[in-house]
Amino acid sequence: MALLQQSPKFATTIASTSLEHQQGHIHWRVPSNIALIKYWGKRGVQLPQNPSLSFTLQHAYTEMQLDFRPSSTGKRIVEFYFEGMPNEKFRAKIVQFLETYPEEFTFTEKLHLTFHSINSFPHSAGIASSASSMGALALCLVSLAQKCGIDWGRLETTWQKASYWARLASGSACRSIYGGYVLWGAVPELPHSSDLYALPLSQENIHPIFANFCDSILIISAEEKAVSSRAGHALMNGHPFAEARYQQARTHLKQLLEALAMGNLEKFITIVENEALTLHGLMMNSYPSFILMKPATLAVIEQLRNFRRQREIPLAFTLDAGPNVHVLYPAAFRQEVRNFIDEELVKYCQQNRYIHDEVGTGPILFQ
Ligand code: PMV
């Protein structure tokens, strides 16, 4: 049985008009994702030191619209609006991205590109938006390339190109190109897996209990991250535990694939929580050292573990590189877990904020 899924349909038509006369717009909705096996440490050009695995969310997404027309100056012009307002920081990021990989983006060189972007989740919620926003950027650019007459042939290759570009923009974004459970990184057991782009796991290899898993994101702090993602990955260079960590991630990945296929919740919980705490452990014993968990993060973890033991409800937690807690649980326990969050955990959340999310179906192209 194929472990990796056939790529979903790419619903874009290929236009053959010449570049100079082209104008139009492209509109994608791309969700964020939560890593179960963490990508932490990179090499070369945005290549991961170890494979990672995530599921794509449903409700936390970026919507990006790209309007394009021939540039009046004959040179590329980029404008960027975030939630209706010009945003110089994001604009500069896109310009830098396009200029870093000029051979990839020659089709944009004579165009005037105007991006409008919004997030479904609040701007200052402490939720990393780079996966959804850079995923959306990559898909908008792939659709634009197609409208400029570039044809990668097979649909599968087109999705891989989107994931490849998303990876160049922000590593974990390459997993947001697909719905469901997504793998990024070459794994010997999976012949088509690659460090260059992510691939979706076949639904046949996901037990029904995991197919509609829930993720309630508890906003412990919405403060800006103390360490940027780039600096965070760099902490792994020369880290005393680096090699052991990369090996552990590979072992965890293999075990998690088995757990996902078999519906083994116990194994899932053990691996996923260990991955989160390892990520934070690595940051704590890096030089320099970072403690990104807050006292409330630990209080929530303790409460979750007590609740799991006392109520025998199979929930797990995971953490990104920040203090917020993702509570993961089967949809069958939705009510019990959400009641518990409302009764016991909401007091640890900044301004009582949390977001209920779940495994999602992936990006949507609006026609
Ligand atoms: O994609 P980046 O460079 O922002 O790194 C993401 C790193 C983690 O979120 C901590 C883990 C992951 O795999 O998403």
Summarize the model shown.
With about 375 residues, this protein is of the alpha+beta class.
Please give the number of β-strands: 14
Structural class, judged by helices and strands? alpha+beta
Average pLDDT figure? 93
Characterize the overall form. globular
Strand content: 15-25%
CATH class category of the largest domain: Alpha Beta
Order of helices and strands: EEEEEEHEHHEEHEHHHHEEHEE
The separation of the N and C termini measures 34 Å
Architecture of the largest domain in CATH? 2-Layer Sandwich
Low-confidence stretches: 6-17
Estimated helix fraction: 25-40%
Q: What small molecules does the structure contain?
A: (3R)-3-hydroxy-3-methyl-5-(phosphonooxy)pentanoic acid
Domain count: the total is 2
Report the sheet with the most strands, covering strand number, pairing sense and barrel closure. Answer: 8 strands, mixed
CATH topology of the largest domain: Ribosomal Protein S5, domain 2
- What is the overall number of helices? 9
Rg is: 20 Å
